Each structure stands twice: as structure tokens, then as C-alpha cells.
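C-alpha cells for chain A. Residues wanted.
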């Protein structure tokens, strides 16, 4: 059974910062990469950032230079540091774990609001 613990969502002012964290665990669970997606109400799910087990990162153009994805001591824990938040960053942020086997597992999501 795979379990997620996500935290760090909340309300920030425009230009402010939040840090999301996600830890995934499970028996015989071998993570290749971790992803942060976001989905706002009425919009399609959008890939925000990713990090592989080797540390390679990638970002959506909309967050480059503002968001940073990083790992903990291993790939099973990831963080998303969000700086310079904009109203359009408000969304549900979802953590996704991609296994070497090809399977994907999703966290429950954490809400980010940006408001003055």
C-alpha cells in the first residue's frame, strides 16, 4: 500500500512564498521520479515541476525562476519552494510518484491560495 503525506499549502499574498512537501512510502515502492502537478477549478491538470532519482529537475515555463523542486535525503520526499506567488498560481497542488515499474501514484493534494 502506498501512502502520501502532503503539507505546506495555505494562503499567501501576491509576491509571497510557500513551501510544499510530499513524502511517499510503501512496501517495495521504488520511485523513479516525483512530480508536482496543479489543477485549478475548471482547468486541466498542469505539470509544474519534476525531479528524478538522479536529481534532474524540470519546470513549467510559467514557474521557471520562481519555483524550486528539491529532494529530501531520498527521492521519496520532495519539496516545492514557491516564491513570487501570483494569483494565477492558486490551485490544488498534487504530488505524483512515478515508479520504475511505470506505475503512477497520486497524493490527495494540498490547496494553495494567493490573495491580498
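Reply:
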Amino acid at each position: 500500500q502506498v501512502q502520501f503525506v502532503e503539507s505546506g499549502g495555505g494562503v499567501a499574498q501576491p509576491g509571497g512564498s510557500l513551501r510544499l512537501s510530499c513524502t511517499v512510502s510503501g512496501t517495495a515502492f521504488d520511485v523513479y521520479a516525483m512530480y508536482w502537478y496543479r489543477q485549478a477549478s475548471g482547468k486541466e491538470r498542469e505539470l509544474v515541476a519534476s525531479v528524478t532519482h538522479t536529481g534532474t529537475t524540470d519546470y513549467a515555463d510559467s514557474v521557471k525562476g520562481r519555483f524550486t523542486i528539491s529532494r529530501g535525503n531520498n527521492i521519496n520526499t520532495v519539496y516545492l519552494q514557491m516564491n513570487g506567488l501570483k494569483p494565477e498560481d492558486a490551485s490544488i497542488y498534487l504530488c505524483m510518484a512515478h515508479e520504475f515499474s511505470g506505475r503512477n501514484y497520486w497524493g490527495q493534494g494540498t490547496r494553495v491560495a494567493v490573495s491580498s
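DSSP finds no helices and eleven strands in the chain. The chain has a mean pLDDT of 94.
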